[in-house]
Predict the 3D structure of the following.
Amino acid sequence: MHWFFIITGLIFSIAIFGFAVSSFLEYEKRAGLLTLGFGAAFALSWSGIGSAFPGATLYLSIAAWAFTALGAFLLALPFGKTEPLKIDLSKTERFDERHIMFGRAELQEGMSQYEEYYTHLNPKMKKTDDEIRRMPELGAEGAKYYHQLDSSYMVSVFEFIEGYSHLAEPGKPAVRPIEITPEEATRRIKGFARHLGVLDVRVTGLRDYHVYSHSGRHLHNWGEKNQINHTHAVVFSVEMDHPMVHSAPLPPTCTETAIEYMRAANIGICIATYIKNIGYRARAHIDGNYRVLATAVAHDAGLGELGRLGLIITPSHGPRVRTAVVTTDMAMIEDKPLNFGVQHFCEICKKCADNCPSQSIESGDKKEIRGTTKWQSKMEGCYKYWRSAGTDCAICLAVCPYSKPNTFYHQILRFFIKRNALARKLAFVMDDLVYGKRPRHVSKPNWFSNE
């Protein structure tokens, strides 16, 4: 048996068993067990072939490496569909925040805002919204996954954010603008953001369709026209913990959502305050206090691509992130939108739509919505399930193949699917085979109650 044959077998076996160990560390028991079985079968088969054909082991080793190299080469070729998200700038228009489900849920019969909305703006949604209003509040008693200790984590964090969300507007600059080039401004803001703990940070010019036409999330400024005379937007992401997301739809996942919104809010306010203190106007757009559509800004800045589930899919962590935006009149260098194959992959995959408990995610083709050709989710059905569950669900995040941790093995796979249409199809098939078609739940962390 040739020494090269033995080394080849060891390298391949280590790679396979390494993936199994990595899968167990990611709490992917099915993937770990399947890979262990495959690794054992490979090791036994390789050893058996070596014993049966000892004189051909050198040639078999060369053939194995040649086949692997050829496969990697073919899958790395820039091949197949990689169309970007289609946006017709001549048809874009501002979206009215009063139509957002979170704001509509705040309206109560007898309020002037209630009468105006359901009489003039959107009368056809009155029956649906009234039905939702009769359901338990998010995280409140009566919901399916309500727990008096578990649910209070999420409620407390969101209450905390609400208590200081007014700081998103740091006020007028107290000093005259300090001279700074767009290059240095970009370097400083991005560096500051990364040191504060963001996953990624990008810049784009602030466009008209990025800004909500009217405020509609809170009653105190409901219906006011939004006027933001800023020129640029800084958008950044923070990572959601993988095991917490994979508890979906149990309380840990909505707790993680709240925690990352809190972290993003803190960072956004810090950045906006810094910009104000060097003499420029700025505003943070954070959970519960937006004036811009963060997803649209994130796409145009190149933070990620808009996926089937209606969220930004980032290159390294998929949709398993939360975002916030800072707008300003300080000039910076703009980044470009990304195109790493998400539109094609989402055409193939449909895992989020297949697993959505309320069937709110579009499983068919895209439609043009205000100039953007995209998949449009049904926010009423989604939010109705949230209220019935008492959590923000997040099953779509948990099952998305892009949500895998940014480990060595997943980095390799992302390299191929970014470049090659065939690699995307193979990746989807393997994801179903190795990880399964349905979500599996990770146990709650030990600081949550045990069931």
The mean pLDDT is 95. The CA atoms of residues 282 and 328 lie 4 Å apart. Strands lie at 86-87, 200-205, 232-239, 282-285, 305-306, 312-313, 321-328, 367-369, 372-374. The longest strand covers residues 232-239.
